[in-house]
Design brief:
Strand content: 5-15%
CATH class: Mainly Alpha
Distance between the termini: 93 Å
Helix content: 40-55%
CATH topology: Arc Repressor Mutant, subunit A
Order of helices and strands: HHEHHEEHH
Strand order of the largest sheet: 1-3-2
Length: 120
């Protein structure tokens, strides 16, 4: 597998999402599909096929089910780049969520005490 073929395979955001899902754990095709509710099973299956063809996923068949896991050794030096990119993306997402949470809702009004009028 050439580096350009690997880069082409991971260029798609959908394939990157699938790769992230199976990075540390083996998942069934159905579990991968459930993690991506906006995509049809056929589309997930097609993306899985492309990742398998690129040598980026191992497939294990058990009866009628297929289980997928990332082949990290195929990525070689790109593995560290992807892991750093994903952890940076998570950090940015966390920061954005914290900023949004701190800005949410109406600002509390300052309570002012009624002024006393001095007797003259």
């Amino acid at each position: 597998m050439t580096e350009s073929a690997v880069l082409t395979a991971i260029a798609s955001p959908r394939r990157q999402a699938i790769l992230r899902l199976v990075w540390d754990a083996e998942l069934s095709a159905g579990a991968i599909r459930r993690a991506m509710p906006d995509v049809t099973f056929g589309a997930v299956s097609q993306q899985l096929g492309m990742l398998v063809a690129a040598g980026l996923l191992d497939v294990r068949t058990e009866r009628r089910h297929r289980f997928y896991r990332a082949r990290l050794q195929t990525l070689g030096p790109l593995r560290a780049v992807l892991e750093r990119m994903w952890s940076d993306a998570l950090w940015h997402l966390k920061l954005a969520a914290e900023l949004e949470h701190s800005r949410r809702g109406p600002r509390p009004r300052r309570r002012t005490m009624p002024r006393r009028r001095s007797a003259s």
